[in-house]
Amino acid sequence: MDTDSNADEEGKMSQNLLQWTVADVASYFSAAGFPEQAMAFRTQEIDGKSLLLMQRSDVLTGLSIRLGPALKIYERHVKVLQRTHFLEYEDL
Q1: Which residue pairs, CB below 8 angstroms and at least 24 apart, start in 74-79?
Q2: Is pLDDT of 40 > 70?
Q3: 3-class DSSP state for residue 54?
Q4: Section 3-14 average pLDDT
Q5: What's CA 79's distance to the chain center, in Å?
Q6: What integer pLDDT is reported at residue 4 of this predicted model?
Q7: Which of 47, 50, 71, 75 has the greatest count of CB atoms below 10 A from its CB?
Q8: Which among 2, 18, 74, 86 has a CA at the least distance from the CA of 41?
Q9: How far apart (Å, rounded) are the C-alpha atoms in residues 49 and 54?
C-alpha cells in the first residue's frame, strides 16, 4: 500500500514541477535513492524551474557529484521529469 501512495505522490509532484521548491527537489532525489546527491541539488539551490532547464553537462559536472550517480540521475530522473512535464504542457 505504501508503494502505491508514493507513486501517487510522485505523480502529483511531477505535474507541479514548476512549483517545486529546493526542498522538494532534494526530497525527490533522496526518496529516489540518492540522498548524498540530493544535498548537491540543495547546495546549488535547484528548484523545479531550474530542474526543467538542466542539461546533461549541468548534472554531470555542475553539481560536483560522482559520474555514476550523476548519469543515473540525469537519464532516469531529470530527463524523464523534463519529458513528462513538456509532454503534459505542450498542448496548452
Answers
A1: 77/28, 77/29, 77/32, 78/51, 78/54
A2: yes
A3: coil
A4: 44
A5: 8
A6: 37
A7: 47
A8: 74
A9: 9
